[in-house]
Amino acid sequence: MSWYPHVTVATLVEKEGLFLLVEEKKQGQLLLNQPAGHLEQDETLFEAAIRETLEETQWRVELKALLGNSLFTSPANGITYLRTSFIAEPIELDTLHPLDSDIERAVWLSPMEVKKNQYRLRSPMVINDIDRFLKGESYPLELITHIQGFTPSI
């Protein structure tokens, strides 16, 4: 069997000092996570981040910047995740859009509330992204290039 990382995206959405997180059920536990998920076929990283945020929180967002990449191997399942995290601005709450089936609700939490609930975090990447954001890390979206429609001549 060949090894490969799972490509995922996440959004860090901040409003008035609070961060948009989701409470999701995983193996009978109610965990906290950022809006995040897997890149789907024929989708850009930008599209995946916007889609995942809407599906998990009902918030339409606009990507403002790249926060960075994280590589994490989960001790629970041995899967390595290569995650691209984006900084996004909340635009509109769409309560008509259904939440993903494993999402209980979206919540806005302060950094202190997130740290108090570290035992409930789905992965250490959540608090890592918040810490990076609070330190001022932010990069232009143009650092990511999506190459589409290329047909090799050979």
How does this model look, in words?
- The chain has 154 residues and is of the alpha+beta class.
- It has one domain (6-141): Alpha-Beta Complex (Nucleoside Triphosphate Pyrophosphohydrolase).
- 19% of the residues lie in helices and 41% in strands.
- The protein has three helices and seven strands; from the N terminus they run E-E-E-E-H-E-E-E-H-H.
- It has helices at 45-57, 111-116, 125-134, and strands at residues 6-15, 18-26, 29-33, 36-38, 59-73, 80-93, 103-109.
- Strands 1, 2, 3, 4, 5, 6 and 7 form a seven-stranded mixed sheet that branches.
- Strand 2 and strand 3 (29-33) form a beta hairpin.
- The chain is globular and about 55 Å long.
- It starts with 5 loop residues before the first strand and ends in a 20-residue tail after the last helix.
- The relative contact order is 0.25.
Features:
single chain, 154 residues, alpha+beta, Nucleoside Triphosphate Pyrophosphohydrolase, 7-stranded mixed β-sheet, 7 strands, 19% helix, globular
Alpha carbon gyration radius:
16 Å
Q: Give the helix proportion (percent range).
A: 10-25%
N- and C-termini, Cα separation: 29 Å
* Average pLDDT: 94
Q: Secondary-structure map with pairings?
A:
Layout: E1 6-15, E2 18-26, E3 29-33, E4 36-38, H1 45-57, E5 59-73, E6 80-93, E7 103-109, H2 111-116, H3 125-134
Parallel strand pairs: 1-6
Antiparallel strand pairs: 1-2, 1-4, 2-3, 2-7, 5-6
